[in-house]
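Worked example 2:
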Amino acid sequence: MQQAVHLMPQAVDAAIVALQNLLGREHVITNRTELEFYSQDVYRAGQLPAAVIRPADTAQLSAALAAIAPSGLPIVPRGGGMSYTDGYLPSRPDSIMIDMQRMNRVLVIDAEDLYVTVECGATWKDLFDALAPHGVRTPYYGPLSGLRSTIGGALSQGSIFLGSGRYGAAAESVIGLDVVLADGRVLELGGHSIKNGEPFFRQHGPDTLGMFLSDCGALGVKARATFKLVRPQPESRYLSFSFASHADLFAAMADVARADVVSEQFGFDPGLQAVRMKRSSLREDAKALGNVIQGQGGLLKGLKEGAKVVLAGRSFLQEGHFSIHLSLDGRDAADADAKAAIVRGIMSVNGTEVENTVPKVMRANPFAELNSMLGPGGERWVPVHGSVPFSKTVEIYEACEAVFARHAEAMRKFDIDRGYLCCTVGQAGTLLEPVMYWPEARAAFHERVLDAAYLAKLEKFPSNPDASAAVAKLRVELADVFSAHGAVSFQLGKFYPYQRGLTASASGLLASLKQLLDPRGVMNPGALGL
């Protein structure tokens, strides 16, 4: 682990002046209220940065890092701010944080050769909307927080959801990358390294691009990325099923994933299902009606489908049961129906088909407001997660349940609720995400990021440090359980015990790479345990 460097105040002041001259005073934030906001993520706060800079393009970003370098100030890149693992929270005083959100342009859309180049401060919704008129999208096309989550954040932290049932994680769709190092040098990787051609193919010699994915900003700042594109298949089907047991649910999900017929497949345990039903309402489903109609390819058909959403309400999911929700796409109606038949054949062995409201509404509005970052009564929210092979999903679920059982008394005492989200990631395995809700005061992060009209309806809790300490203990134990079972995680940040889960050779290589690229240890200190 790198040692902290104690800096003189003059060095900090001089670096800020240099950055103001370079970027303009309005793009170097030093106001304390703003710095307090930037020092928070979804879960907690870190140290206050000395300043937040907002470069406009790769040239400004490179020049800014070169200007900071002589001072030795720590550098912390920040995307859309959706981390809950201290991913961008400063761990040292006098850090300079980089807000990437001005670098949000979609630079090249090539619908013929099927690639897109985009600045890494763009959100996934920005990219999806820019591609839609061209009839293309990226294979993986965003997390559920894609309204605010950025391209660079997802590539730095790792990300799954929209499209992941078929295409896997975000890293599997990227084919070119520009990374700016701590001294301002720009590395062109993957397809971007091809000197006399287009960035249409990732592996141009050794896959150096891959070393910078999921690095949590510990190796450099992602400035520009190129993704492969696909033409979305025109016919979609949506299915939902209810299961009485977790073992039956996980077995069915694995069989469907191996059949390679779904785009998204995600499920809830009874606890999270109850939370979602409290949050959702007939009125909210009605708000999604327009999007459902728009997505059905015909007014009459759309009206019928939208009416089903509203009439179904929230009563179709049986209390105490697990549920699974699937979206699948076909080249034509016959192809989509054939895939749906395969899913029904697998799921109906031990499951019961129910109204498909949940996947239909999710697809109609994939980049919704981020209100799920608080509980339905205003409670605080935080997840932990890990991915395991299909054969180990039951084992890891039961190991997590054992953690909650050991802490049952504290959970009752502090009113801590829990639930699970699960989904499949391509044909690789299952992601299991236990989430916790507890009464605790909201942070400035929530007040600014969540929908104001939604916040106004929620209870405001007082500070509750004892409950938060109990949740923190649960988080650590759950992360340790995932690590002990060989699970892999996204959003490693500074929370997951990453180094402990590595072989000695892998840990040594990473340390050597860090020393080569960032010898002073100033890039996001503490990320990946470095």
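The chain has 19 helices and 17 strands. The CA atoms of residues 110 and 116 lie 6 Å apart.
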